[in-house]
Amino acid sequence: MKNIREILRLKSQGISERNIASSLKCSRNTVSKVLLRANELNIRWPLEVDYTNGELEELLFPKESAPVGTHRPPNVEYIHSEMKKPSVNLRLLWVEYCETCKQSKELPLMYSQFCNVYQKYARRKRATMHIPRKPAEAIEVDWAGQTAYIYDRETGEEIDVYLFVGVLSYSLYAYAEAFYDQSKVSWINAHINMYNFYGGSTRILIPDNLKTGVTKADTYDPVINKTYAELAEYYNAAVLPARVRRPKDYLQNQVIFKNLFE
To answer: Is 20 exposed, middle or buried (0-12, 13-18, 19+ CB in 10 A)?
Structure first.
């Protein structure tokens, strides 16, 4: 079996095909063939889905003798709606799809093919545009995901904790820290610890509209919590909250911020 994952990874690091072949003890023709097929299918490292080598080989070099039209096509609209739910991923949906095929006595697609079909659908459904960002210009912060918990070593009791996450918009370099509550003190301390971790602050701070950061949510004139505003002033940052359920407001805010400084 070809080590396709390693071929793609080494190529992403700028290593020549000859050196890749030498490193993996395979022919240069094999490396060229893999990279050519990967380019045709727009497969790049890092992989969007954590394919195994077997799944990648099936995706890049499907057997010509495989029956055509005998596999049950996945319901991509259902998959797309389920993917919006927390704790749902493509692997779980593929298992569910296989069970459905088993009940109807139809052949399921392999996991790699299943993912490929859905990704093509998702790309058509997702209207995107490139957002120009500058290094260390903005950071997005929020309490993330579901409530987590830790164990008390003495009693074994589960203790709820809340995860604060900050992500640099350019590099996607993330900082995460757990707190026992979502109080204002925890929110401020989380920012201080985050800036200490990064070794500096950004010009733009983008929180969600939670009460610890924003007193009044408004599309054009949000009211920033006084303590949070003082923190932003200390770190020389501008707070530009996103609207509730409107995380892509960052693009609009970025334009406003640019106009202020020009």
So the answer is: buried
- Domain regions of the chain by residue span: 4-60, 76-125, 138-261
Provide φ and ψ at 234, rounded to 5°: -60, -40
Q: Give 66 or 162, the one with higher predicted confidence.
A: 162
Q: For position 84, what pLDDT does the model report?
A: 83
In DSSP terms, which residues pair with 239 in a beta bridge?
Answer: 205
Confidence of residue 251 (pLDDT cuts 50, 70, 90): very low
Helix boundaries (H) for the chain: 4-12, 17-24, 28-40, 53-60, 76-82, 90-104, 111-125, 184-198, 226-234, 249-261
Could you tell me the fold of the domain covering 138-261? Nucleotidyltransferase; domain 5 (3.30.420)
Which among 106, 105, 107, 75 is positioned nearest to 93, based on CA atoms? 75
Residue 66 is classified by DSSP as S
The CA distances from residue 61 to 2, 51, 112, in Å, are 11, 14, 12
Structure tokens at 205: 């701070």
Contact 160, 147 (CB under 8 A): yes
Using CB atoms within 10 Å of the CB of residue 126, give its burial: 0 to 12 exposed, 13 to 18 middle, 19+ buried.
exposed
Tell me how far apart the alpha carbons of residues 240 and 253 are, in angstroms, rounded to a whole number.
Answer: 6
The 10s digit of each residue's pLDDT in 31-71 is 999 999 889 888 889 887 778 888 888 888 876 434 445 68
Q: Which residues of 180-193 are buried (b: 16+ CB within 10 A; e: fewer)?
A: eeeeeebbbebbee
- Render pLDDT for 96-117 as a digit per residue (tens, 0 to 9): 998 888 888 888 888 888 988 9
Residue written as token pair 């003495």: 154
Residue 218 has pLDDT above 50, yes or no: no
Taking the C-alpha atoms of residue 198 and residue 196, their distance in angstroms, rounded to an integer, is 6
